[in-house]
Specification:
Largest interface: A-B, 27 and 21 residues
Shape of chain B: flat
Low-confidence stretches of chain B: none
Distance between the termini of chain A: 22 Å
Mean pLDDT of chain A: 89
Strand order of the largest sheet of chain A: 6-7-8-3-9-10
Oligomer: heterodimer
Number of domains of chain B: 2
Helix content of chain A: 25-40%
CATH class of the largest domain in chain B: Mainly Alpha
CATH topology of the largest domain in chain B: MetI-like fold
CATH class of the largest domain in chain A: Alpha Beta
Strand content of chain B: under 5%
CATH topology of the largest domain in chain A: Rossmann fold
Radius of gyration of chain A: 19 Å
Strand content of chain A: 15-25%
CATH superfamily of the largest domain in chain B: MetI-like
Low-confidence stretches of chain A: 261-271
CATH architecture of the largest domain in chain B: Orthogonal Bundle
Structural class of chain A: alpha/beta
Chain lengths: 271, 255
């Protein structure tokens, strides 16, 4: 998966003006290159800036330094070619499932007849064609997120940004959706940037796992996961990656509890 | 079986309350001369009389027409204005002191000016109904627009929707359940002020019918008029509820 760089980030920093103590640094010194068609997971504890980072890549936030580029163009605002999937779905409750999926196509000016065909196709893809006439409140959380994924896929984006999309779902639904997402990704070959705080989820999905740490938010380490898909979550290799990530998290915790004390461990891990 | 009984009970309870109320009214009215406090039978007779000579229908229709005119005019002005102000916080902030000072002034207090400006007739009553409905609709619309979840706008922007599409296809429907609450409140206040408006500045309508009856000491007609006002208010309220449920279903918000 060493295609041309799709997303390029160098020296990215984001500061927020905070009312109490002037400025707060959300993320700093982020260098990251993501290849076209790659599946990358951003993982880390709360406050590590993973959500800020994905919002910056998607153009919902403006960086203080080091603007990301996608396909060589600077990201200045959200783009219909780079669709974000949110944890709380963002479905429009007054629209039916079909109309929700149609929304993105209509916004892009796709002719009604063609849009309808395309929307039903993508609903078929996520197994929800039968629910086309339902309203979001009639669906389970997993189905809602499938609709949001269908709405995104309908406009054929080259990048999918996913911000903890499965965090609100129960374990069984989450595992199912992880597998479905991998199936869709392998069929569509779009670039996926996936934020999660679940280490198993990151290992199961990502070709690379970007481990982030707080205080201020930065990239701690990038771990390539050299396992074929579909990944057996109970295999020894999976467990090995799991141990590796847990060890890394342990370092993060130590350093957070004793800032500056464990410089050696942090420096070694950062490179 | 139990359900049937419970349903019967649910119907019997309000009926019992009404029966007791009419009974107490009947007994209490016995202690007063009829021109001071008429009993239910006198009011019923007055209702029959008013229905037969046509005054009740004529006054009811004119009241309903004024109510509809004032209310719809208020909605037509306040709703678009609220949608706009909800999206333009700077202008809303600039207008806020004006709104906050005008809002607590009772629509009745506008009455002397309304008569000076519009004369006696339909216009002052419609103006007072307009004022009574305007502020509830305006303020709830503004707050409904402001409380639209940011994620809807984020999603719409992400898909490249243009401002006009975002306004018509996202802002308006997303705010509508909240706006509906304002429409509901406004129906109540507007109906209350209809009677007041007609008592002061009109020569027709249910409010005028009540004032006119006082001039002839027809207390039975006064109470008959009050009863009709109350029943029509209830009917309008129920109609509003039905509309709300319909829209709720359309919006996919029904349970």
């Amino acid at each position: 998966m060493t295609a041309e760089p799709k997303i390029l980030i160098t020296g990215l920093e984001k500061r927020y003006a905070s009312s109490r103590n002037g400025e707060q640094v959300a993320v700093t010194g982020v260098d990251l290159t993501i290849g076209a068609g790659e599946f990358v997971c951003l993982v880390g504890p709360s406050g590590c800036g993973k959500t800020t980072l994905i919002q910056l890549m998607a153009g919902f936030e403006q960086p203080s330094r080091g603007r990301p580029t996608i396909d060589g163009r600077a990201v200045t605002q959200p783009d219909p070619d780079h669709i974000m999937i949110f944890q709380d779905y963002g479905l429009f409750p007054w629209k039916t499932v079909l109309d929700n999926v149609l929304f993105g196509l209509e916004a892009r000016g796709v002719a009604p007849g063609h849009a309808r065909t395309r929307a039903l196709e993508t609903l078929e893809l996520v197994g929800l064609r039968a629910a086309a006439a339902k309203h979001p409140h009639e669906l389970s959380g997993g189905m809602k997120q499938r609709v949001a994924i269908a709405r995104a896929l309908a406009v054929k984006p080259s990048v999918l940004f996913m911000d903890e999309p499965f965090a609100a779902l129960d374990t069984f639904t989450r595992l199912r959706l992880q597998d479905e997402l991998l199936g869709l990704w392998q069929a569509q070959r779009s670039t996926v940037v996936f934020v999660t705080h679940d280490l198993d989820e990151a290992i199961a999905l990502g070709q690379r796992v970007v481990l982030m740490a707080a205080g201020p938010g930065h990239i701690q380490r990038i771990i390539p996961i050299d396992l074929p898909y579909p990944r057996e979550r109970t295999s020894d290799e999976f467990a090995r990656y799991r141990r590796e990530l847990f060890a890394e998290f342990h370092l993060v915790h130590q350093w957070a509890a004793n800032p500056g004390g464990d410089v050696e461990g942090r420096g070694g891990a950062g490179i | 079986m139990l359900v049937t009984w419970m349903r019967l009970g649910a119907m019997a309870l309000p009926s019992a309350t009404l029966t007791v109320f009419v009974g107490v009214w009947y007994l209490a009215a016995g202690y007063y001369p009829p021109e001071q406090f008429p009993g239910p039978q006198a009011v019923a007779l007055a209702l029959v009389e008013l229905t037969q000579d046509g005054t009740l229908w004529a006054n009811t229709w004119i009241s309903l027409a004024r109510f509809a005119g004032g209310y719809l005019l208020a909605v037509a002005v306040a709703m678009p204005l609220g949608l706009l102000l909800g999206r333009l916080p700077l202008i809303a902030r600039a207008l806020d002191p004006l709104i906050q000072v005008l809002r607590p002034i009772s629509p009745i207090a506008w009455f002397p000016l309304a008569v000076l400006w519009f004369g006696i007739g339909n216009a002052p009553a419609i103006y007072i109904i307009f004022l009574a409905a305007f502020f509830p609709v305006l303020l709830t619309t503004i707050s409904a627009v402001r409380s639209i979840p940011a994620i809807y706008l984020k999603v719409a922007t992400n898909f490249g929707a243009r401002p006009a599409m975002i306004f018509l296809r996202i802002i308006v429907p997303a705010a509508f359940p909240g706006i509906m609450v304002g429409l509901h409140i406004a129906v109540g206040t507007a109906w209350i002020h209809l009677v007041a408006g007609e008592m002061l500045g009109a020569q027709s309508g249910l409010g005028y019918m009540i004032v006119d009856a006082r001039n002839f000491l027809r207390t039975d007609v006064i109470i008959a008029g009050m009863l009709v006002v109350g029943l029509l208010g209830l009917a309008i309220y129920q109609g509003m509820r039905a509309l709300e449920r319909l829209i709720g279903r359309r919006w996919g918000l029904a349970q």
